[in-house]
Amino acid sequence: MTVYLDYAATAPLRKEVLDCYVEHLQTLGNPSSVHSSGQLVRRTLEEARESLAKSIDCNRSEVIFTSGGTESENLGIKGLYWQRVGEDANRKVIISAATEHHGSLDPMEWLEKHDGAEILWLPIDYQGVIDYKFLEEYLKENYNKVALINLMWGNNETGVITDIEKVVALAKPLGIPVHSDAIATFGHIPISFANSGLSAMSISAHKIGGPVGAGALIVSRATKLVSIIHGGGQERGMRSGTMNAPVAKAFALAADLAVKELEAEAKRLNVLRDKLVRGVLAISPLANHTSAEALRMPHNAHFTFEGCSGDSLLFLLDQQGVCVSVGSACQAGVNGPSHVLLAMGRNEREANGCLRMTLGRETTDADVDVFLEALPKALDGALRAGLTS
Amino acid sequence: MKVLAAMSGGVDSAVAAARAVEAGHEVVGVHLALSRMPGTLRTGSRGCCTIEDSMDAQRAANVIGIPYYVWDFSERFKLEVVDDFISEYEAGRTPNPCMRCNERIKFAALLEKGLALGFDAVCTGHYASIIKDDEGNLELHRSMALAKDQSYVLGVLTAEQLQHSMFPLGHTASKDLIREEAAKRGLSVAAKPDSYDICFIPEGDTQDWLADRLGNTTGEIVDMQGNVLGEHKGAHGFTVGQRKGLQLGRPAVDGKPRYVLAVDVKTNKVVVGPQQALAVVELVGNKFTWCGKPQADPEVFFDAHVQVRAHGEQVACQVAVVDGSMVIRCEEPIYGVAPGQTAVIYLGTRVLAQTTIDHTVSAVDSFSTASASILSGVEGAV
């Protein structure tokens, strides 16, 4: 039997969400149609919007449905950038961090390459925490040059949580919009969009038991942004394309369940995660617990193993039926050194030899035991293989 | 056995993996990522390291029904193959990167990693056969499909490496049969074109690629007597035996075409001359390896055949180890052999040994050389 400890990659589709999805897939109608069939599906879509808004604590009109996290981030980052530059051509700076997910790094770098954006990379410490003081000082001098601040809420690899309130408190008085990637975070720690003061926030369904191909950008009503997809003007003109009511409904249900269960689940997973961390540290003197001193999400455990390659560890654990990850998704199956760890000042050896375990709703105490039983053999083989190259 | 099938994304390695499964082995497919930026390598079917190739390999593994992983060997590949390729050209030699890759990546780094991870052997789609002799020693032999025979590029394998190697295609009579079999197995790579060129040179233009890395320094093209005939734009762009691209305005005195005889990177000179001056009768390599069991009495000249290029003809020769170097006396001249090339020694169909050529002796008495000695006036180096 497979033990799945890679919830941050994707979480199992919940049974009740699947049922809901399948049920609504069978309803005929385009939500934009005026007739009664269209209206019926529109109703489903708007119910979903209202429900998701409740789960995320925002106004229903602030929910822009997208095809997933990456599209949300592209819309949030490019849309805000173009809006701000359109208002004042001198605002070319995007403030961000090199520990961001590629879904956010790549749109920023695209803007840098093709549209004159300048990216200010905030210093990051060994624990993976950004330098808030540096941000404050920079903004004092350069606020009029800044288009937006883009910082993820919780890191998908290390689990480190950004103090979004602090960032917004610095940016808001200066009129600078902040976008946050909450894809790895939503459903794992309490999030209130209304209280956050964010201008925009990206979320995704499949990380919380919803279907792949469903996401949303939450855009505050006070925020304007330029659309990146043009067509029928759906979703307040920010995201054209026929609206996908069944997927929105399934997403909303997954979000509702995740948020309702969050407190109890966070406690339960925290206990399992701590057991896993203690177990790993007891097994191997080579294990270095990443970001142990930083504030982290409760379902994430990340380690580097001196002298081992992530490739080998992953293979040997997989051979024993344990699914883990070396970090974020890879290109063409190639796991290069983690850019997140490199950004935290780790060397290439460390960044190559990491493992991320992320727990979720179906993870049990027995799963953690299976992992801890499989680990010594994997470490043993990986260490031998590591010494050969 | 637990077998690691190296899958390039081509038809040969896919069929090899399928045959290993059928033979009852526990097979895991592995694609070697040889570049950290796979998108930057050539696209389509010409190379073996693109994202598309990796996806082809994965699909083949799915169809065969084996687990599939991508392992990153990009750092090691750069160090052992790409950098070696550049420095060999820089030194005026002509390397064979596929051979280096077999020697240092596929049957070294990959095999070592595989053994450490609990595997017994590496399986590839090379056209060559491993046969056991009467005493139980493993021998590497030419493939039954002689037109596709790749035993030359495997000549670097040692007895130890042969023990952990598996070439399931060696007993098939032609590549067409492999393609047919792939189609029958439902492998979508059945009709994928062969790759010929060097996988890490995106546009297939080795000279341009080298010029980007080594720079272009204009130098003289001279004849065997040292007379200046023209100018070149970088010595490393030339290979011994090359005829085209010399751009010498004047014809030779005898009206016959001129060939590159030697490349001297130290003086940045390219020596040209008539075809007969390319003829070589003796090859000497300071470093050599035995492929399996060594020759019983290697200090005494013995009859064999030598092959100096992947798809070249073999030539009858006599071979012996003299003062620690492998000396190969050809019974008929070989044309256009460059230092840095590999000479593989065959006994019948068996690969016996290989050496990297350091010196050559010309069939023309006055022109015995190692490339560098032509210009420095040193008499035949061997």
Number of helices of chain A: 12
* Most extensive interface, chain pair and sizes: A-B, 21 and 24 residues
Which oligomerization state do the chains in this entry correspond to?
heterodimer
State the CATH class of the largest domain in chain B.
Alpha Beta
> In percent terms, what proportion of residues of chain B is strand?
25-35%
- The arrangement of helices and strands of chain A along the chain is EHHEHEHEHEHEHEEHEEHEHHEH
Report the sheet with the most strands of chain B, covering strand number, pairing sense and barrel closure. Answer: 10 strands, antiparallel
The order of strands across the largest sheet of chain A is 2-8-7-6-5-3-4
Rg for CA atoms of chain B: 22 Å
- What does the average pLDDT of chain A come to? 95
What's the CATH superfamily of the largest domain in chain B, by name? HUPs
Helix content of chain B: 10-25%
Description:
The complex is a heterodimer of chains A (389) and B (382). Chain A is α/β, with parallel strands linked by helices. Helix content of chain A is 44%, strand content 13%. Chain A folds into 2 domains: 3-10 and 262-388, Aspartate Aminotransferase, domain 1 (Alpha-Beta Complex), CATH 3.90.1150; 15-257, Type I PLP-dependent aspartate aminotransferase-like (Major domain) (Aspartate Aminotransferase, domain 2), CATH 3.40.640. Chain A has a 7-stranded mixed sheet, sandwiched between helices. Chain A has a 3-stranded antiparallel sheet with strand order 9-10-12. A two-stranded parallel sheet of chain A has the order 1-11. The longest helix of chain A has 39 residues, at 245-283. Chain B has 382 residues and is an alpha+beta fold. In chain B, strands 5, 6, 12, 13, 14, 15, 16, 17, 18 and 19 form a 10-stranded antiparallel sheet that branches. A 5-stranded parallel sheet of chain B has the order 3-2-1-4-7, sandwiched between helices. Chain B has a 4-stranded mixed sheet with strand order 9-8-11-10. The longest helix of chain B is centred in the first third of the chain and has 20 residues, at 97-116. Chains A and B meet through helix 9 and helix 12 of A and helix 2, strand 3 and helix 4 of B.
